[in-house]
């Protein structure tokens, strides 16, 4: 009698090639599928026998476009969390960590994933910084040479999303352009991920011509059509589960050319709703055929990333699989990786990180002394009143607009209080220049109190905003004590806080503790008047100088469309 390590009996097995479920017994040998026995009559000597009891067996879910840092977890607790959702492989793009610690940050993220129960692969960050040193100060820079070195890492499988999509299709001297030229010569066919919202026609063709043939961003139906018609792999995240998009894919049988991804999932959403399983579940509920939803969450993403050893239950493939009570409800009873159980609903436990980062990763908030004087905004003018550029926050998007607000000038200082605005500041915290950028915010943001965070895309300098300088100073000093995090303050009292001590952007706690801390901050922001649908993401992108229209960095106010720093006081 032939020996195998694991025998799964009485399962309804998803056959990827037929795109349907078939009754079968499945044997596993040396971490790979050995025999899918449709007749269910082959005898094996198995170390372990699992009676599936008629449960549905699908390949482990594969998420090829996501950012672990969005969860605010380090790789090991992140992997422990998503394993429970049936995810056995992810491809993470660590440009957040790279903005803080450069190539060292990426290599440490790779090392920190070694003890995770799932496979964590990485993409090479292509836009670090997201713009250049004129507009923002980052802790690290990833240039062409750094990208070349990262190609040698065995867990690196692609080029991460290329975000400066309008610059790259014009004549330029970008580091990523040099790297793409190198790839065409030395690594033809290497996977290159894109980020190109709104590109159409000739501009889209120019983008594709460079070899960038994947996109995950939010689009109109016409934009989706042009991407698929031109050979671009389309990655469907939560906000793209639009009826017209799903209908177009289903009516035209375009399943080979798309896959489901998560992109960004914050800790509280991760804990309460799930990860890739949540996106797949919503697609099925929206009418996407369940067999095709599984196909586009396992097989097509694996092929996109050239991970040909997974994403299917077939002889010789990695024994990554999930057992479900129903394929319409992606709620795993069991999850296996390489034929070893990594999750059982009966024995769920949460683990914190075991990996220790280098000491300086826990001491990344490096500020010169900050006093109340730093919260005064100078006005280099003899006028008694001036028009000030203000960032207007909108409740339904992370893009902002510029608004002009009249403010009095007293003793060459802006008298900004009681003008319907909050003072906002970005303090360079990587220990490079001590810059402070000044601005104001209004609209769907706080009505009162203060907020501070180092989770501030993509440069992750320290952002603070509020209506009271004393509260703002308290917030800054508390962030220094925590060595990074997210917190709110009012009337001299800290209302809610989440410490993020690893490079100011990650927690080493498990998902539950991190999620509950983040949820308290989110609820506190709403209680203070923040009316955005996702106040954490809205705040975190107020300093992102590639997202229109007016943003704030340590260099000052950035006109995103013109890619220039503009004066706070309008002429």
Give a written overview of the molecule.
The protein is of the alpha/beta class and 571 residues long. 25% of the residues lie in helices and 29% in strands. The chain is globular, with a radius of gyration of 25 Å. The termini are far apart. The longest helix has 18 residues, at 95-112. It has a nine-stranded mixed sheet with strand order 19-18-17-21-20-23-22-24-25. Strands 1, 2, 3, 4, 5, 14, 15 and 16 form an eight-stranded mixed sheet that branches. It has a five-stranded parallel sheet with strand order 6-7-8-9-10. Helix 3 (144-150) links the parallel strand 8 (119-124) and strand 9.
Strand line-up in the sheet with most strands = 19-18-17-21-20-23-22-24-25
Distance between the termini: 87 Å
User: How is the biggest beta sheet arranged?
Assistant: 9 strands, mixed
Provide the structure class: alpha/beta
The low-pLDDT segments are none
The percentage of residues in β strands lies in: 25-35%
Helix content estimate? 10-25%
Number of helices: 15
Number of strands: 28
Mean pLDDT: 96
Shape: globular
Please give the radius of gyration in angstroms. 25 Å
Characteristic key phrases:
single chain, 571 residues, alpha/beta, 9-stranded mixed β-sheet, 8-stranded mixed β-sheet, globular
Topology readout:
Blueprint: E1 2-15, E2 20-29, E3 32-37, E4 44-51, E5 56-59, E6 61-66, H1 75-83, E7 87-92, H2 95-112, E8 119-124, H3 144-150, E9 156-162, H4 165-168, H5 175-186, E10 192-194, H6 201-209, E11 214-215, H7 221-229, E12 233-236, H8 243-251, E13 258-260, H9 267-272, H10 276-285, H11 290-295, H12 299-304, E14 321-326, E15 329-337, E16 340-344, E17 385-393, E18 401-410, E19 413-414, E20 422-427, E21 436-443, E22 450-453, E23 462-466, H13 469-482, E24 485-490, E25 493-499, H14 511-527, H15 535-540, E26 550-553, E27 556-559, E28 564-566
Helix pairs in contact: 3-5
């Amino acid at each position: 009698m032939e020996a195998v390590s694991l025998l799964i009996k009485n399962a309804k097995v998803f056959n990827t090639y037929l795109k349907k479920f078939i009754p079968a017994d499945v044997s596993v040998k040396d971490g790979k599928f050995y025999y899918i026995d449709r007749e269910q009559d082959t005898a094996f000597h198995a170390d372990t026998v699992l009676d599936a009891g008629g449960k549905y067996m699908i390949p482990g879910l594969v998420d090829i476009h996501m950012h672990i840092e969005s969860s605010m977890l380090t790789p090991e607790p992140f992997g422990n969390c998503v394993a429970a959702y049936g995810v056995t492989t992810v491809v993470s793009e660590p440009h957040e960590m790279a903005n803080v610690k450069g190539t060292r940050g990426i290599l440490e993220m790779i090392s920190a994933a070694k003890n995770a129960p799932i496979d964590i692969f990485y993409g090479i960050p292509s836009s670090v910084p997201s713009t250049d040193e004129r507009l923002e100060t980052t802790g690290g820079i990833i240039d062409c040479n750094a990208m070349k070195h990262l190609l040698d890492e065995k867990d690196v499988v692609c080029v991460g999303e290329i975000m400066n999509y309008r610059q790259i299709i014009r004549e330029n001297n970008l580091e990523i352009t040099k790297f793409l030229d190198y790839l065409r010569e030395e690594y033809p066919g290497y996977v290159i991920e894109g980020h190109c919202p709104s590109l159409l026609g000739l501009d889209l063709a120019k983008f594709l011509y460079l070899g960038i043939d994947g996109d995950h961003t939010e689009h109109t139906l016409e934009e989706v059509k042009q991407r698929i018609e031109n050979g671009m792999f389309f990655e469907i995240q939560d906000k793209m589960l639009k009826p017209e998009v799903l209908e177009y894919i289903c009516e035209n049988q375009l399943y080979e050319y798309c896959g489901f991804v998560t992109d960004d999932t914050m800790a509280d959403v991760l804990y309460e709703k799930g990860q890739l399983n949540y996106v797949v579940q919503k697609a099925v509920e929206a009418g996407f055929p369940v067999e095709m939803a599984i196909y586009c969450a396992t097989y097509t993403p694996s092929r996109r990333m050239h991970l040909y050893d997974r994403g299917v239950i077939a002889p010789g493939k990695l024994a990554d699989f999930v057992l479900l009570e129903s394929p319409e409800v992606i709620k795993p009873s069991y999850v296996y990786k390489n034929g070893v159980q990594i999750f059982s609903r009966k024995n769920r436990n949460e683990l914190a990180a075991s990996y220790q980062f280098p000491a300086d990763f826990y001491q990344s908030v490096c500020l010169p002394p900050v006093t109340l004087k730093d919260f005064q905004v100078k006005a280099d003018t003899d006028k008694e009143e001036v028009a000030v550029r203000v960032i207007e926050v909108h409740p339904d998007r992370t893009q902002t607009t510029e608004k002009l607000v009249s403010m009095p000038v007293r003793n060459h200082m802006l008298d900004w209080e009681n003008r319907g605005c909050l003072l906002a500041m970005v303090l360079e915290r990587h220990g490079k220049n001590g810059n402070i950028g000044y601005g104001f915010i209004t609209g769907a943001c706080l009505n009162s109190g203060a907020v501070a965070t180092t989770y501030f895309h993509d440069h992750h300098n320290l952002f603070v905003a509020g209506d009271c300088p004393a509260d703002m100073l308290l917030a800054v000093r508390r962030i220094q004590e925590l060595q990074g995090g997210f917190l709110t303050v009012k009337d001299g009292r800290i209302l809610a806080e989440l410490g993020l001590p690893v490079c100011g952007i990650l927690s080493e706690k498990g998902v539950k503790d991190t999620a509950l801390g983040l949820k308290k901050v989110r609820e506190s922001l709403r209680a203070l008047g923040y009316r955005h649908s996702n106040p954490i993401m809205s705040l975190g992108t107020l300093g992102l100088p590639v997202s229109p229209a007016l943003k704030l960095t340590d260099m000052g106010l950035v006109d995103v469309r013109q890619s220039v720093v503009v004066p706070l006081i309008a002429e």
